[in-house]
Amino acid sequence: MQDVFPSSVNLINFVFLDCEDIHQKHTSGAQSGIFKITPAGSAKVFSVYCDQETTLGGWLLIQQRLDGSLNFNRTWEDYKKGFGSLDVKGMGEFWLGNEILHILTQKDTVLRVELEDWEGDKVYAEYNIRIGSESEGYRLRVSDYKGTAGDALIRGSEEDGSEYTAHTNMKFSTYDRDSDQWEDNCAEVYGGGWWYNNCQAANLNGIYYSGGQYDPRNNAPYEIENGVVWLPFRPSDYSLKAVRMKIRPVETD
């Protein structure tokens, strides 16, 4: 991960496994903020933003789109290392990085996706998640959906065919490394890096369109669905206002 968090931030000088470990053990663990972690199986220290206010606490923020200020149409290497930045209050746009996502999800992990449209409606989706290594193409495996957003990752878009649009078991693709199931490159058409199939029922790293609709003056007709999308929640030509992705360990009894 490089440059995801500003070096000027006064990080708390304790190192833990993840945000849940911080929530349980850290003297400031009940407060959301930027902390240092060394995940199990890694010798590296990472700076991450911990959300301790959402249900159960212990959520580690891995992606955020708020205003379109950051370009997400980036290379494989960018998505591997991470890009963007957050302030101490967790505001900003960023991608944590596929390599650390692989490390963090090798134990039982929950993914939480939070979505907001331009009318102020908010929904969420949760899955059990595991992300493969780079040699596996950072393959996405999700199961056990629950939530209010609709299941875009396992079921995909039934209208367009689940076998073509579901994202589980798909490798990660970028415009410079095509690993999707389509004869062309989904990332070139729809933008951003994502676990494309042939091509998508969701893409939270697509092009950000203020107001929710694409501008036909700037887009060819086939690019009408290249926004920040989650098809069970809003149609493919509607680009969402705000999205966040968070992970935490599966709660154990």
What do you see in this structure?
This protein is an alpha+beta fold. Helices cover 11% and strands 25% of the residues. The chain is built from five helices and twelve strands. The protein has helices at 19-25, 76-81, 98-104, 162-165, 186-190; strands at residues 15-16, 33-37, 46-51, 59-65, 83-84, 94-95, 109-116, 122-131, 140-147, 202-203, 229-230, 242-249. Strands 1, 2, 3, 4, 5, 6, 7, 8, 9 and 12 form a ten-stranded mixed β-sheet that branches. The longest helix has 7 residues, at 19-25. The protein is globular. The model is unreliable at 6-12 and 217-222 (pLDDT under 50).
SSE inventory with pairings:
Elements: E1 15-16, H1 19-25, E2 33-37, E3 46-51, E4 59-65, H2 76-81, E5 83-84, E6 94-95, H3 98-104, E7 109-116, E8 122-131, E9 140-147, H4 162-165, H5 186-190, E10 202-203, E11 229-230, E12 242-249
Parallel strand pairs: 1-2
Antiparallel strand pairs: 2-3, 3-4, 4-6, 4-12, 5-6, 7-8, 7-12, 8-9, 10-11
User: What is the total tally of β strands?
Assistant: 12
Distance between the termini: 33 Å
Any idea what the radius of gyration is? 17 Å
Give me the strand/helix succession.
EHEEEHEEHEEEHHEEE
Question: What tags apply to this protein structure?
Answer:
253 residues, alpha+beta, ten-stranded mixed beta sheet, two-stranded antiparallel ribbon, 5 helices, 12 strands, 11% helix, 25% strand, globular
What is this entry, summarized?
With 253 residues, this protein is α+β, with helices and mostly antiparallel strands.
